[in-house]
Amino acid sequence: MQSPQQILEHIFGYAHFRDPQAAVIDTLMAGNDALVLMPTGGGKSLCYQIPALARSGCGVVVSPLIALMQDQVEALQEAGIRAAFLNSSVSYEETLAIESQLLHDALDLLYLAPERLLQPHTLSLLQRVKLSLFAIDEAHCVSQWGHDFRADYLQLNCLHEQFPDVPRIALTATADQRTRAEIARRLNLETARHFVSSFDRPNIRYRIEPKGNQRRQLLQFLRGTQKGSAGIIYCLSRAKVENTAEWLSQQGYSALPYHAGLPTATRAEHQRRFLREEGVMIVATIAFGMGIDKPDVRFVVHLDLPKSIEAYYQETGRAGRDGESSVALLLYGLEDVVKLAQMVEASEGSEEYKRHERGRLNAMLGLCEITSCRRQALLHYFAETLDRPCGNCDTCLEPPATWDASEAAIKLLSCVYRTGQRFGATHVIDVLRGSGNEKVRRFEHQQLSTYGIGKDLASSEWRALMRQLIVRGYLEVTGEFQSLMLTELCRPLLRGEVSLQLRRLPAKTSRSVSRDPAAPEGLTCEDQPLWQALRNCRKALAEERGVPPYVVFHDATLRGMVKAHPQTRSALLAVSGVGDSKLARFGDAFLAVLRDFPKR
To answer: What is the pTM of this model?
Structure first.
C-alpha cells in the first residue's frame, strides 16, 4: 500500500500538498471525520481521492450531478485509477458489471448519486464490502437555506448510523457560517475536524458594472481580453439564454445555450462540446456548472444579478480553476432587483425564509454598489478578513468617483412620498423628470410640487440613485407591483441632518487591454510555436480517447513542459502534473514534440 505522498507524486504527478490537504488526509487516514471548506480550484478532490487509495477498501463518493461524476471518473481512469460511477445514465448490464467489480475488490473509487446511494439495494451492497471512506461532495446541497438544496442530501446522515467505522468527509466551496453549521448538524459532523481554507481566489478579477447597452458591453468585453477563450455567461431566464446564444453565434462566437428546458440530449451535447472543444462558451441559467471540472474557463459573465453572494461566489468560482488569470464580469440593473424581489415574495416559503432571502439579495446588491475593494467585501461576507485592498478588482484598479447625493436623494424620496408610495421606479422617475405621458396625466401628478424637479439628471442616474437608496435601507420595494416605499431611515436625511456620498454612475464602460489568449502568463513570443505544438498533441490524444483535453494534461503542465523543455522520460516525469500512468500513456508523444524544437 502506497503512502499519501507517494500517491501524490506517482499517480497525480505533484511534488507537494497544498495547505491544508495533508492535514485533511491525515485525519481520514486515522479513521476520523472531516468537514472541508475550500474554494473551487483549491484541490478538494485530492483530499478524499488520495486517502481512498491509501486506505484498504473502496472509497464511495456522493456527487449530485451526472456530469461531475463522468468528468472525475474519466480523469481518474486516465491516471490509472480503478474508478466507476453509478447513476441513471448507466445501463442495467453496466450496473451489474460495476457491482461485481465492487464485490471483488476491483474498484478504488465509486461515485454515486445520493438517490442511488440511499436505495436499500445499494446500502445492502455496501455493507458487504470493505470501504475506505465516504466523501460527500458539494455538501452545501444539504442546506435548506442554500441555493443548491437537494432533498436527498438530508438523508445522508444514515451513513453515520449504518457505517459507524467508516470515516466521512464532507466538502464544499460555498458556505457561510450559518450554512456551515447546518451541514455539520444535518450530517452528524459536529465532532468532526473542520478545515476552513481562505475563500480568496486572487487570480479572479472581479468587475461589476451597471447595465447600459448590455449587448454592446458584452461584445466589448469579449473582443477585448477574451478572444478565443472558454467562458460561461449566466442569464436569469431561459428565453434570455437562447436569445443571447443565438446573437453571439451571429457575431461569430461559438456560443451554446444550456437550461433545464432543453432536451436532455441537447444539454449533454452542448456540455460535451464545452468540455472538449477549445474556445466554446456556454450561455446558461444556473442549471449549468455545479461540479464542472473544466480548469481553463477564462471568464464568467452574469448578465443578470445573482440572488445571493453565495450564488455569485460559486458561479464566478468556475473561472480559473487552473490558477491562471480570469475575469468575473457582472452587469446589473434596477430591473434585476425588482425581478428577484418579486421571486422572493411569490415563493411559498415562510416569512422567515423570505426575510432571509431579502437579506441575501440586499447583501448582493450592496456588493455591487460599494466604492471600496470588492474582494475585501466578498471575503468579509464569509467571515474572512483581507488586510489590504486586493489590487485586482475594478474598484481597486479604477476607483469610482463619488458625489454628494443628498439633495437628489431628498428630491427622489419626496417624490415617492407625494405620489403615494404606491408606484414603481419608472413612474417616479417620469414625475421627477417632468414627463407628460398618459399615466402621469391620469393620476394628475403633473400638479405635484416634485413634478419636473429632477430634469437635471438622466433617467439612468435616477435609477442608479434608487438602487443605492434601496441598498442603504432608505427605500424598500414591496407588493405585487413593486412599489417604492420610504423607511424610518429617511427622516434624518429628509430633515437635512445627514449627508449622502454615493458612487457616481460611470460615464462609459472602461476598456480592457487585449491579450493573446494562446499566450499564457510566463511564456514569451519565442515559446509560442512549442506551446501550440504541445496543445495540438494534447488535442489529438484527447480526441483519440474521447475525453476533454485537460484530462490528458492541464495548461499548467504544458507550460511546465515549455519552461523545462525535458528531453527524457525521467525529466518529463519531473514536470508538475505528470504521473507514472500518464508518462506511460502520453510521454513518448509529448517527448517527440519537445525534441522537434531546439532547446533554448
So the answer is: 0.74
